[in-house]
Amino acid sequence: MGEALWAELLKIRRSRLPWLTTLAFTIVAVVCGMFMFILADPARARALGLLGDKAQLSGASADWPGYLALLAQAVGVGGLLIYGITAIWLFGREFSDRTATDLLALPTSRIAIVAAKFTLATLWALILALWMCLLGLLIGTVLGLPGWSAAIAVHGLTRILITGALSAVLTTPLALAASIGRGYLPAVAVMFVIVFTAQVIAALGYGAYFPWSVPALYAGLAGPDQDPPGALGIVLVLATATAGVLMTIAWWRRADHTR
């Protein structure tokens, strides 16, 4: 396991993807801060025209609770895409770069290889969520948003972290898709289908029963009138994540790796 982790860390360190995902989260935080900047001054929002209208449509309030809630909602929607890309890259690159057979020829168990990839995907997601929290605190402070309190900050940051965790664990089926598809493109197609379906099902009011809709609902994207997903939604998320891990391990153990 140690050797597998070291090898995966080396691949990550030499890749540009960690910086790109960090940049993506940075842009999200800055855009959410821009919405707060516009909402803080209605006259400015009207002067900016369409951008001001979009900010008003966000339903957020220009204060700390509104900003932290908006960040959580952004993680609930965009987190699945960004975390999904990292999972797809970790598993799909071995086949796209044609290094899968070389990797499996090493004296390291296939379970250790898969476990190392999932471990680093989890740590990667955690670091990005923490980065979002840090940026949220920094940008909110620069904007001078009202409504600050320790309790509000803890509640808002906890929501961001939990939303990120829910989105991250739901990428395990994408790792399976990248493995079965032996590359990036099949898994990316599966990811877009999942994201589209999650939006449709949530709009129909059944998001609490579809695992990939649960993170956005938990973040409050459906609005204050919509009840957050209950225990069943969380159980479905954990069951989906567990099934993705177990099926990925089973595939790597039993598949005929010819390339």
Describe this structure in words.
The chain is mainly alpha-helical and 259 residues long. It has one domain. Helices cover 77% and strands 0% of the residues. The chain is built from twelve helices and no strands. The chain has helices spanning 2-13, 17-39, 42-47, 50-57, 64-96, 100-104, 110-143, 150-169, 172-180, 184-203, 214-218, 231-254. The longest helix is centred in the middle third of the chain and has 34 residues, at 110-143. The two termini are 23 Å apart.
Provide mean pLDDT, rounded: 84
Q: The biggest beta sheet, please? A: none
Number of helices: 12
Sequence stretches where pLDDT stays below 50 over 5 or more residues: none
Portion of residues in beta strands equals under 5%
Work out the count of structural domains: 1
Q: Helix proportion of residues, in percent?
A: over 70%
Features:
259 residues, mainly alpha, 12 helices
Short structural summary:
By secondary structure, the protein is mainly α. Helices cover 77% and strands 0% of the residues. The chain is globular and about 65 Å long.
Which helices and strands appear, and what pairs or packs with what?
Elements lengths: L1 H12 L3 H23 L2 H6 L2 H8 L6 H33 L3 H5 L5 H34 L6 H20 L2 H9 L3 H20 L10 H5 L12 H24 L5
Helix pairs in contact: 1-7, 2-4, 2-5, 2-7, 5-7, 5-8, 5-9, 5-10, 7-8, 7-12, 9-10, 9-12
